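FAQ

Q: What does a record look like?
A: Structure on top, sequence underneath. For example:
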């Protein structure tokens, strides 16, 4: 029973992280200045990735433990890490959209790393968390072309997320 509670808390938190990531990138998209419109492709790809990962996490919670979306969206024990992700995206401090993007992705990876190392996490969920963490690491690398050239990577590069 304890392992079930730990696993559900971790799933709760990951769903919350992805919900906040989606909201954050949607907010960034609506506020992009004209000189940063090239970031639309990157932010859309991150939104799609979070939508897909969130659905997968909700599916794991429902299929294995019968939890619904409402239950899976309750905050678990990694609430502090979630609040860091939320703070990055909702900050009103002046910063470039790409800087918020990098900070948000790093916060998300820290959260994944913390959850992956949790004792008592169900093995199938640990495998899912590990795979998603690697996908987020790969996606974070998409930022590099934007920093170097100021131009978006091709749609083909971004399509590898799915």
């Amino acid at each position: 029973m304890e392992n079930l509670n730990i696993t559900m808390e971790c799933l709760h938190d990951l769903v919350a992280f992805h919900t906040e990531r989606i909201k954050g990138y949607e907010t960034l998209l609506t506020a992009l200045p004209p000189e940063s419109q090239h970031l639309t492709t990157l932010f859309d790809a991150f939104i799609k990735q979070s939508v897909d990962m969130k659905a997968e996490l909700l599916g794991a919670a429902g299929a294995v433990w019968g939890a619904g979306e409402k239950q899976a969206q309750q905050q678990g024990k990694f609430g502090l890490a979630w609040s860091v992700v939320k703070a990055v995206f909702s900050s009103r401090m002046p910063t470039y959209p790409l800087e918020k993007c990098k900070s948000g992705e790093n916060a998300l990876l820290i959260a994944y790393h913390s959850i992956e190392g949790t004792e008592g996490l169900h093995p199938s969920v640990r495998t899912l968390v590990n795979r998603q963490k690697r996908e987020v690491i790969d996606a974070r690398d998409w930022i590099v072309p934007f920093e170097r050239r100021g131009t978006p990577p091709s749609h083909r590069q971004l399509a590898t997320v799915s």
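Q: Is there anything notable about this one?
A: The chain has eight helices and no strands.
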